[in-house]
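Quick log. Single chain, no ligands specified.
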Amino acid sequence: MIILISSKVRSANIQASLGKPEYSYFFLMKDFLPALERVGTVIQVQSPDEIESLHASYTAQGEAVIFISFSPPHQTPLNLPCPTVTLFAWEFDSLPSVAWDSNPQNDWRYVFAHSHGAIATSREAALLVEQAMGDDFPVTSLPAPVWDRFAAIGSINSTSTSGEREFPFTGIVIDSPLLGLSADGLVRKADETPIQETVMPQPPARHFQAKPLLEAWRLSMTLVKDWWKEIRHSTDSNDAILTSPQRQVIPEVPQHIKVRGIVYTTVLNPADGRKNWIDLITAFCWAFKHSDETTLIVKMTHHDLEFYRVALMTLLSRLAPFQCRVLVLHGFLEDEHYQGLIRASDFYVNASSGEGLCLPLMEFLASGKPAIAPDHTAMADYVNERLAFVLKHSLEPTCWPHDPTGMLFTHRHRLNWQSLMQAFHSSHQMARDNPSQYQEMSREAYQQMRYFASVEQVSKPLERFLQQVLDTEGCLSGVKA
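-> predicted structure:
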């Protein structure tokens, strides 16, 4: 079987694409590769013309060929001679069913009707496709098989480490204890010249849910003019660099960042309103206002520091003083450095209103790191109380993220902030006072992800599904599977 695959974002432009629409599909495709390679010969393609050429060439040799588009359905190429499957992530309780902008592909039912199958990364999304298309349409749900890549980090005997450890990072580090945070800088004195009002750009439709972030961003325009001075602090080998907007320089040499105590980590896109990152940081700082042995690491996945820096600094200043540490990382994490970050962490935190899969959460769980997370959308497939402190949530109306009308056609899951703060307290107490319970949660995370998201567990149903698609389309007549 010849398996052609494509993604809008490729390895050559991934660093510049962080935070942009659909950038995460590159990582999704990368994680599916080991399972796909067990099923057939995998070829990454760049254009529909290349798909047509390869399909013609391999079918002439008697090979079965199938194309998998790692993209939202409305971006899937249609009308190809090759059987086409969309592999997509979705985090809402209804599918887009309106052909806005005179584009029929914006109605996902049209896309599925003109393709040959779909692979959803959650059971909830697969069920929505089944309900929309009927029993005859080939659809399945499969998670990204991440366990094998991270299993070496964890084990069935992992324990929480409260002592000092370090991890390398090449990028800009914003470290709260080194910033001299104070809310005084947010208030303009009567004798100061008012700052000229800054006209904020209107957010595109996909950021419709990012209202708290944008409100904080607008508030941050009251900062005094000289707030953004270049700050360079150094404590041993741990550097924190905060450059002025005109001199944003990404360091080329890795820093060795030291942490101690209980360490919480989250990886998120600050442009994604689902992530509730302002609520997450606020709950952490309230929970550990008087604890200097607790750290929150926020790895921002965005190509532009200026998109979120002022909002972040304003938030931290409003929360000050606090003794806990907030460590924000800006820059691309190579695999080795990312694994170092996981090893230095005790818990992963997800506070989002919806997830199509959440690769970082799965990766930390596969490494034996317990989590704080809700059990809705795709996370309902693998988050439970045996491996996580489960957050409370409730439904509220929202729009599809790429709908330009902003109409409230679907739902998201509103975060219960109090349960997040309580989860911080409870997890911290467990890691500090009950190491055997932490070890049990770590063991559950490691083992459950092994049976849920290993290459072996995913490749077998993946092969059956792709074979079903080929059989359904009659593509095996006279060719080799």
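Residues 195-247, 475-481 have pLDDT under 50 and may be disordered.
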